[in-house]
Amino acid sequence: MSIGFGIIGLGNRGYKYALHTIMKSKECHIEMVCDAHGNHFDQFPGISNTKEFTEVLENPKVDAVFIATPDDTHAEIVIQAAKHKKHILCEKPLEISREKVQEIQVALRDFEGAFEVGYVLRYARLFQKVKSYLISGAIGDLHMINVMDHIPYGGYAYFHDWHRKRETSTSLLLQKATHSLDIVNWYVDAKPREIAAFGRLSTMGKPGALKKFGKEVASDLHCRTCVISDSCEESIQNILKEKKISWSENWPDSCVFNSEIDVDDHQTVMVQYENGTQLAYQLCLFGAYYKREFHIFGSGGELRFDDVSNEITIYDRLRNETVTYKNDYAEEQMEPGDEEQLQDFILAVQTGKKPISNLESSITAALLAIDAQASIDQKKMIKSD
Ligand SMILES: NC(=O)c1ccc[n+]([C@@H]2O[C@H](COP(=O)([O-])OP(=O)(O)OC[C@H]3O[C@@H](n4cnc5c(N)ncnc54)[C@H](O)[C@@H]3O)[C@@H](O)[C@H]2O)c1
């Protein structure tokens, strides 16, 4: 029987995942769409729509919901969806505070439906191949990991809208870095124990404005009306011209140098896991180029990979030997792993199987980023419980 989906939140992620992934699957269909601001209803002709998510939950033809609303709305919608006995595919991160994450944990304690969280990289072929190398003992026991996320579209993606305020996102460690941090949790297969982090806002927000303009910018400044948008490295117009980035015609364009911005634009996080494995992670949201790079050290060798070359290289510690694997799979969805993630969810609905990205793993991922932000704020190492 085809699974009837309700889509809640039709912003950048929601409508694209619905159109390119859910609608393309033969095992499910969309019964109803919902967006509080009526965004992208026109992309779903013939499908009933609403601005109230409770109407989706009350629809008996909706078996499962895909929740793609801003991070600080997830707990309310997840908890209501569970009460209505809907299967739940919720976007990452689970929520933006320890309290809200715990509310979800308590509410889902006896939940019998499928629950999966949008950590797509766990489903992407490159990352899965690395996991299989690690399980097979290709570099022996895993001891140390170094990860760097270079994001050249950080201003565009995260500093124009709700992502830029801690009130609605807590930090970009939770919003963006969480993908890579979750992958490390999965590879290490243990809980983070000690977390020490540093973060700073240096290039966007008020510090960026003082360097660029010598003063703060007006709170209502937008790229479309700004007198320097022709030369500004962060203007929507230049990002399109120079980097060919335009994720939607109506992309928000509030100035990325606005003083209300209070999330950091670069961070360093160090983690010691309960099994002794150590992580050094860095996120840069004003990178010059895109790359997610991993370097993993084991007792028998080293493994390096990145998602630009799409290559994995394993160096043997004893012998002068390397093994290289090239991932040639062409991803055609919004994010690598989108299709496989949906497949895992469908299987969870049909068979009761526990998804690869599940409640426990997404709680661990969220709390790691929340603890890292606490370490930055309190200037001390945090011991995770
Ligand atoms: N897994 C991934 O790779 C990935 C990629 C992008 C975004 N995301 C996640 O998807 C979620 C949405 O991100 P986005 O970039 O699409 O944000 P967005 O701001 O573009 O879209 C959010 C949409 O939700 C709607 N909305 C807000 N509150 C609502 C409510 N109570 N009920 C119904 N609709 C509501 C808004 O009107 C908006 O259209 C976030 O949690 C984000 O972290 C995940």
Task: Describe the overall structure.
This is Gfo/Idh/MocA family oxidoreductase. It holds the Pfam family GFO_IDH_MocA_C3. The protein is of the alpha/beta class and about 375 residues long. The chain has three domains: about 5-120 and about 340-350, Rossmann fold, CATH 3.40.50.720; about 120-150 and about 160-200 and about 265-335 and about 365-385, Dihydrodipicolinate Reductase, domain 2 (2-Layer Sandwich), CATH 3.30.360; about 205-260, no CATH class. The chain has helices spanning about 10-20, 55-60, 75-85, 100-105, 125-135, 155-160, 165-170, 170-190, 205-215, 235-245, 340-350, 360-380; strands at about 5-10, 30-35, 50, 65, 85-90, 115, 140-150, 190-200, 265-275, 280-285, 290-300, 300-305, 310-315, 320-325, 380-385. The protein has a nine-stranded mixed beta sheet, covered by helices on one side. It has a six-stranded parallel beta sheet with strand order 3-2-1-4-5-6, with helices on both faces. Helix 3 runs parallel beside helix 4 (about 100-105), helix 4 runs antiparallel to helix 12 and helix 8 (about 170-190) packs across helix 12. The longest helix has 20 residues, at about 360-380. The mean pLDDT is about 95. The structure holds nicotinamide-adenine-dinucleotide (NAD). The site of nicotinamide-adenine-dinucleotide has 25 residues, from helix 1.
